[in-house]
Amino acid sequence: MYCQFISSPLGHIKITANADGITEIMFSSATEHGTPSRFTELAAIQLQAYFAGTLQQFTLPLAASGTLFQQHVWQALCEVPFGMTCSYADIARRIGNNNAVRAVGSANGRNPIAIVVPCHRVIGANGTLTGYAGGLEKKAWLLKHEQRL
């Protein structure tokens, strides 16, 4: 496993990868030093460009572990356009299972690749912000950041 930390406007971010690609991007209170790889370095460059407002589409090899259902949900999240939002029901429809709204919410909450797999773009059906592993203040910041660009 490879690991790298970067600073962002939202605090420190930990980037983890294996030989196949990025396995995790998470907000972190730690600033440890890890062993970077070409994948973590590429992710660091793209995340810094995202925060600088010069990148709207990530092009990273992703290698997150999850169930087949979670993988489908995470892929659908990647199709939500920059600066836009959708509901859990929208994602359920996108994966072809209208009755899976709660399961989509659960898979969304288990997304290990923050920002790049944009689970922050999923909001409640009534337009309110709903849970986010990094905290609602970070979710609000990310949405505002994307909508002003």
From TrEMBL:
The active site is at C119 (nucleophile). It is an enzyme of class 2 (transferase). One of its GO terms (biological process) is methylation. Keywords: Cytoplasm, DNA damage, DNA repair, Methyltransferase, Transferase. GO terms for molecular function: methylated-DNA-[protein]-cysteine S-methyltransferase activity. Residues 1-63 form the Methylguanine DNA methyltransferase ribonuclease-like domain. Residues 69-147 form the Methylated-DNA-[protein]-cysteine S-methyltransferase DNA binding domain. It comes from the Bacteria. CDD domains: ATase. Pfam families: DNA_binding_1, Methyltransf_1N. It is found in: Cytoplasm. InterPro entries: MethylDNA_cys_MeTrfase_AS, MethylDNA_cys_MeTrfase_DNA-bd, MethylDNA_cys_MeTrfase_DNAb, MethylG_MeTrfase_N, MGMT, MGMT_N_sf, WH-like_DNA-bd_sf. Its EC number is 2.1.1.63. The keyword DNA damage applies. This enzyme catalyzes only one turnover and therefore is not strictly catalytic. According to one definition, an enzyme is a biocatalyst that acts repeatedly and over many reaction cycles. Involved in the cellular defense against the biological effects of O6-methylguanine (O6-MeG) and O4-methylthymine (O4-MeT) in DNA. Repairs the methylated nucleobase in DNA by stoichiometrically transferring the methyl group to a cysteine residue in the enzyme. This is a suicide reaction: the enzyme is irreversibly inactivated. Belongs to the MGMT family. This is Methylated-DNA--protein-cysteine methyltransferase.
